[in-house]
Specification:
Layout (H helix, E strand, L loop, with lengths): L2 H7 L11 H11 L11 H7 L4 H15 L3 H23 L4 H8 L3 E6 L2 E6 L8 E5 L7 E13 L1 H4 L5 E2 L18 E2 L4 E13 L5 H11 L6 H31 L4 H15 L3 H20 L2 E3 L2 H6 L5 E4 L11 E7 L2 E5 L10 E3 L2 E2 L4 H12 L4 E5 L2 E5 L2 H11 L11 E6 L7 E7 L5 E7 L1 H11 L5 H13 L3 E10 L8 H5 L3 E9 L4 H12 L3 E5 L4 H11 L7 E3 H5 L3 H10 L2 E3 L3 H13 L4 E5 L5 H6 L2 E5 L5 H6 L2 E3 L6 H39 L8 H20 L22 H27 L4 H23 L14 H19 L1 H7 L6 H29 L1
Parallel strand pairs: 9-21, 9-24, 21-23, 22-23, 24-25, 25-26
Antiparallel strand pairs: 1-2, 1-3, 3-7, 4-5, 4-6, 4-7, 8-26, 10-11, 10-20, 11-12, 12-13, 14-15, 16-17, 17-18, 18-19, 19-20
Helix pairs in contact: 3-5, 4-5, 4-10, 5-11, 5-26, 9-10, 9-25, 10-25, 10-26, 11-25, 11-26, 13-14, 18-25, 21-22, 25-26, 25-27, 25-28, 26-28, 26-29, 27-28, 27-31, 28-31, 29-30
Length: 877
């Protein structure tokens, strides 16, 4: 719509009158207040949610039965296990931040509006659709607006669109309706900020209907998906529970028919079997391994992981979808080319830090008058400031202007400035697309320096010089543009010493063109190496950006994103069917001119195709996709609070290269969790089998529920601490990502668990029965049985720790494992010989013979499992 149509649509007689009180009331009824609502899950609901777990249900049922039967100590220990598991889960969920609160904080607190012919400041939430708003440099945009008057009006929208530069805003109507967000130059969006000029606007959307509001809604409605590992562990836990309950019911019925046990004894026996078989240490052990991995990444790898399961998800990532600006690139515009007539110079160094050289044929150039004047012109035709803060270089102003300041200081020491005195300045104007400054040098000569769009400066140069090589210069512009670079022309004009004002008319009379520059937001150096490592590991990287398709493709090629780069735009994606969209998401590497909604849809399409997807970004526009992804990764230094709160992981150094390190760490943690499960389950099953075999043989119960819980919780978790410190296996980054449809345990894992648990159970029962025939008490025999299971665990640990044979260089790769084993042995001695522990856990002092049997049992388990491993290694070779 043109301005007159906009005024008519909102029933505005003129801009300075604004809305009247009646119109305000009507707008409030129809569109509501200009605010965002967020809903929080109460803490008590989070806590109750932790008990919604099959293993917890069984344990609570077991605790109730033991309480009814008067076994109070058993009840207390089982209840403690339940509470500890629930508290661990609660802490993980409660520590997650609320991204919606951060989005609300981004909205401006006040706005200047015209109401009833009066200009006044009001709270931003009382801005309504149809309100006439006045904005100037420094203001935050309070709602979505249609610009109706613009005076050199520029808005910084990078957090919303990904565009690094401020956007020039106009009041004219746009020809097409399907225009990408970044190109809607007659609109302003809530949460963005005005960098220069002023404007008058009409409010078109408030609250949840604004672009930032839509993002808020998407974030609110996006449910975090369970990680692949958590799904696998949930499935495993349910499967184990169903099998154990089925066996328990069958044994109960079998024993009732035989009438060997009284009902109370049989009930306690079945409860004992359930408590022994169920791996209640599984959730706690998994959490501890994840938590220690998270702690290690925060200390040593510049990575903060907010939710524990997220760190493991990295190990199964197939695709990393990433924002471009500020993630793959520095978000610091840099001059890379200086083109004079028949001479092309290159500039080294990236970003705002003034380190680098101006080169010709790879050799540093000598500073001649032409280059000196060019650098001075770029510096003077400028109203941006370059500063160093805490060893970090930043600009206050426009990124393009900042690139000229950095270019100057690559040749001159900071903070030296050209010796010119400013007389007058013509600020950048979107109608003219250049800026100029009138200065005076030490010789009292006055010069106008000008910098701007080549298509504006070239006609001025031609007006001054009829032999101006127009074709040559336009060819140079085209070449730089094809490389994805922004092109800016620089010129000057000598004027009389009494000239006091610079005007557009004066400049149109003619200028001398000094040259042009090619400017680009440079790729981060560390990203190129990281992409190589990730591609080698079978992880595909896709760039999703609001930038121009050509620029995005060039950056992708410079980074080595993929051997062949295919580009698709957000507008093209919007026109596709669901199946076409899924295909496009899989087979394109660069997605340009995308909206926040496009980003989330791309992530969803990849997930629908079975890809475990990570999303990296730093802007508000990335928030929905960050939350939707299997793992969202935000930048810690330049990332917005909204992005950081929506993400699962934060890179504190803004180094995309850390992703490769994090993926390696994720794979290590997954391996170690799988090892801990392979270690935990056979020993749990062995305990259940001991009770099951005893019931089948109609013998007296050899173990109490508290003794089984000691083995499961204390010994298992203590010994399993060693898996936390287990280093990565060799060649871990040569493997392809594991498939999400793969089971956690393969057929051999199940076979090994079966024979190890049967071996442990049979050795324990045979040893127990033999020891009873030697005239020892039942309590001593039970104590030996506990020791057989615990020492078997310790020896079995050395088999599970590594895929190499136990007697190899990997034996000493984890020194902390030996310390943990020592702690476990000390705990066993306390259990056996301390009187208080003897009364609680029904243990007695053990003889040397019983110790010898226990150690021999462990050695047998280790030897058999190592023979199995040797056979597998030979088959693999």
């Amino acid at each position: 719509m043109d301005v007159e149509e906009v005024l008519e649509k909102y029933e505005l007689s003129d801009l300075e009158s604004g809305l009247n009180n009646k119109q305000v009331e009507e707008s409030l009824l129809i569109n509501g207040f200009n605010k965002l609502e967020s809903k929080k899950v109460p803490k008590w609901q989070l806590l109750l949610r932790q008990f919604n777990n099959m293993i917890i249900y069984i344990l609570m049922f077991s605790a109730l039965l033991t309480l009814i039967m008067g076994h109070t100590s058993d009840t207390v220990i089982i209840a403690l296990v339940v509470i500890v598991n629930a508290l661990i889960g609660y802490y993980q969920e409660a520590s997650a931040s609320d991204a919606l609160e951060r989005i609300k904080e981004m909205l401006s607190s006040e706005a200047t509006v015209y109401r009833e012919g009066i200009r006044k400041d009001i709270p931003s939430e009382e801005v309504f659709v149809g309100d006439v708003v006045f904005l100037e440099a420094g203001d935050n945009v309070p709602a979505d607006l249609r610009i109706v008057e613009a005076d050199n009006f520029k808005i910084q929208e990078s957090a919303l669109t990904g565009e690094p530069d401020s956007v020039e805003k106009i009041e004219e109507a746009l020809e097409s309706e399907n225009i990408p967000l970044a190109e809607r130059v007659n609109l302003a969006f809530a949460s963005t900020s005005v960098t220069s000029g002023s404007g008058v606007e009409i409010v078109t959307a408030v609250g949840p209907k604004t672009e930032i509001g839509k993002i808020s809604t998407d974030v609110n409605n996006t449910e975090s998906r369970k990680t692949p590992l958590m799904k696998e562990i949930d499935g495993l836990g349910k499967g184990i529970t169903y099998v154990i309950m089925g066996v328990a019911i069958a044994l109960f019925v079998f024993s009732l028919i035989l009438e060997t046990y009284s009902l109370s004894v049989l009930s306690l026996a079945v409860v004992t079997m359930i408590v022994g078989s169920i791996p209640e240490g599984l959730p706690a052990t998994t959490s501890v391994v994840l938590a220690m991995g998270v702690s290690d990444m925060a200390k040593n790898k510049n990575t903060i992981v907010k939710t524990l399961p997220a760190v493991e998800t990295l190990g199964s990532v197939d695709v990393v979808a990433t924002d471009k600006t500020g993630t793959l690139t520095k978000n610091e515009m840099t001059v890379k080319d200086i083109v004079f007539y028949q001479k092309h110079l290159h500039v080294s160094g990236d970003g705002y830090k003034p380190v680098g050289e101006i080169l010709h044929n790879n050799d540093p150039v000598l500073l001649d008058e032409q280059l000196k004047l060019f650098l001075e012109a770029g510096f003077e035709a400028n109203d941006t400031v370059l500063v160093e803060e805490e060893n970090h270089w930043e600009i206050n102003g426009e990124p393009t202007d900042g690139s000229f300041l950095t270019l100057f200081y690559k040749q001159f020491p900071y903070p030296v400035k050209p010796v010119y005195e400013e007389i007058d300045m013509l600020p950048f104007d979107s109608d003219y697309r250049y800026m100029a400054k009138l200065v005076e040098n030490t010789n009292n000569e006055r010069i106008i320096f000008i910098k701007g769009s080549p298509d504006k400066l070239f006609p001025m140069a031609q007006a001054c010089d009829s032999s101006f090589g127009k074709n040559y210069w336009f060819q140079q512009v085209a070449t730089l543009s094809e490389e994805g670079k922004r092109v800016v022309a620089v010129g000057f004009k000598r004027v009389s010493s009494d000239m006091e004002e610079v005007t557009h008319e004066l400049l149109s009379e003619g200028i001398d063109l000094l040259g042009i520059v090619g400017i680009i937001d440079p790729p981060r150096e560390e990203v190129i190496q990281a992409l190589k490592e990730m591609n080698h590991a079978g992880v595909h990287v896709k760039m999703i950006t609001g930038d121009h398709p050509l620029t995005a493709k060039v950056i992708g090629e410079k980074l080595g994103l993929a051997p062949e780069i295919n580009v698709v735009t957000g507008a093209e994606l919007d026109r596709m069917s669901h199946e076409e969209f899924k295909y496009a998401a899989l087979y394109n590497q660069v997605f340009a001119r995308t909206t926040p909604k496009n980003k989330m849809e791309i992530v969803e399409a990849l997930q629908e195709s079975g890809k475990v997807t990570a999303m990296t970004g730093d802007g508000v526009n990335d928030a929905p996709a960050l939350k939707r992804a299997d793992i969202g990764v935000a930048m810690g230094m330049k990332g917005t609070d909204v992005a950081k709160d929506s993400a699962d992981m934060i890179l504190t150094d803004d180094n995309f290269g850390t992703m490769s390190v994090a993926i390696r760490e994720g794979r290590r943690i997954y391996d170690n969790i799988k090892k801990s499960i392979l270690f935990l389950l056979p020993t749990s099953f062995a305990e259940g089998l001991i009770i099951a075999f005893t019931i089948l043989m109609q013998k007296e119960m050899p173990l109490q529920p508290t003794q089984l819980l000691w083995i499961n919780m204390v010994s298992a978790i203590t010994i399993q601490f060693s898996f936390i410190f287990e280093p990565a296996e060799e060649g871990i980054m040569n493997r392809k990502p594991r498939k999400t449809e793969n089971r956690l345990l393969n057929s051999h894992d199940i076979w090994q668990m079966a024979y190890v648990s049967v071996l442990m159970a049979l050795i324990s029962i045979v040893s127990y029965e033999w020891l009873l025939t030697q005239g020892v008490s039942q309590a001593v025999a039970s104590t030996m049985m506990i020791n057989i299971v615990v020492l078997s665990k310790i020896f079995y640990l050395f088999n599970i720790r590594t895929s190499q044979l136990v007697l190899s260089k990997s034996f000493f790769s984890n020194p902390k494992a030996f310390l943990i084993i020592l702690i476990m042995i000390v705990l066993q001695l306390i259990l056996i010989y301390v009187p208080f522990m003897q009364s609680v856990f029904y243990t007695e002092d053990m003889s040397l013979l019983a110790w010898g049997i226990s150690i021999t049992s462990g050695v047998i388990i280790l030897v058999i499992t190592e023979i199995d491993k040797l056979i597998r290694l030979k088959r693999r070779k």
